[in-house]
Design a protein that fits this description.
258 residues; alpha/beta; Rossmann fold; eight-stranded mixed β-sheet
Length: 258
């Protein structure tokens, strides 16, 4: 049976084929996605702290996101989606390749978690009128085409007062050297071709494209120790970074800013 995946202006067919080939390796913590497994624990702590603060939740509670509707865009095999579900959230995970959706659904069943995984794009959810308390855009925007339109769709999916968390790689010479040459070609932490320099996104561009309907709550750089493979925070956002943006409650999302 031929592979099934979605098409849309924001989807790069080459990216789809690339990740489709790796679908069966998502939950192999020692396989090609080991950096994502290591990073996930780090970013879950960040999301827990800052999303709970923005939504008026107790981050120290066992399930601080109980009843919170969270959208995980580009959920892959469900690594982050499952972490959010364990914190009590009502999680919807969307993907553009059927293989990834199947992997995520199967693993959620094994884990005893109820997660709504869909073969869908952000613009499809916009057309359905979907709204969420939080939208997670983690390690996604550096893989899409037509970024302004994609972020406009994502921006509409957060309810007024809702939050979007973005994690990506800056477009700097240092990022090219460390995240592409270093991680993919020298250390071989990631398969070659995982990232393309032209698609890397500076944090200021994310802020600009979301426009004045969003305000920035927090931002941080992310570093990794190449010797022990431990992630940590840094004030320098020249390579990896995370942003927390909140949609203003009194304004509607006007669309793409260019």
């Amino acid at each position: 049976m031929s592979a099934v995946h979605l098409t849309a202006p924001s989807i790069d067919p080459e990216e789809v084929v690339y990740f489709e080939r790796l679908a069966h390796r998502w939950w192999d913590a020692e396989g090609p996605f080991w950096p994502l497994h290591r990073l996930n624990a780090f970013r879950v702590d960040y999301i827990r702290e800052h999303l709970a603060s923005a939504l008026g939740r107790d981050a120290s509670a066992p399930q601080p996101f109980e009843g919170v509707r969270i959208l995980d865009i580009g959920c892959g095999g469900g690594i982050l989606s499952e972490s959010m579900a364990r914190l009590g959230a009502q999680v919807t995970g969307i993907e553009i390749t059927e293989k990834n959706v199947r992997v995520a659904q199967l693993h959620a069943q094994w884990s005893g978690l109820e997660i709504d995984y869909r073969l869908a794009t952000a613009d499809q959810l916009v057309r359905e009128g979907a709204r969420f308390d939080a939208v997670l855009n983690m390690e996604v925007i550096e893989h899409v085409e037509h970024l302004p339109d994609f972020l406009a769709d994502c921006g509409r999916l957060a309810r007024p007062g809702g939050v979007m968390v973005v994690a990506s790689i800056n477009r700097t010479p240092a990022a090219w050297l460390m995240a592409i040459v270093g991680a993919e070609y020298i250390l071989r932490w990631l398969p070659r071709g995982t990232h393309h320099y032209r698609k890397l996104v500076p944090p200021c561009e994310v802020v600009r494209l979301l426009g004045d309907e969003y305000r920035r709550l927090h931002e941080t750089g992310v570093r990794v120790n190449p010797f022990n493979r431990v992630f940590g925070y840094t004030g320098w956002k020249g390579v990896n970074y995370m942003l927390v943006m909140q949609r203003l409650a009194s304004r509607g999302f006007s669309g793409t800013l260019t």
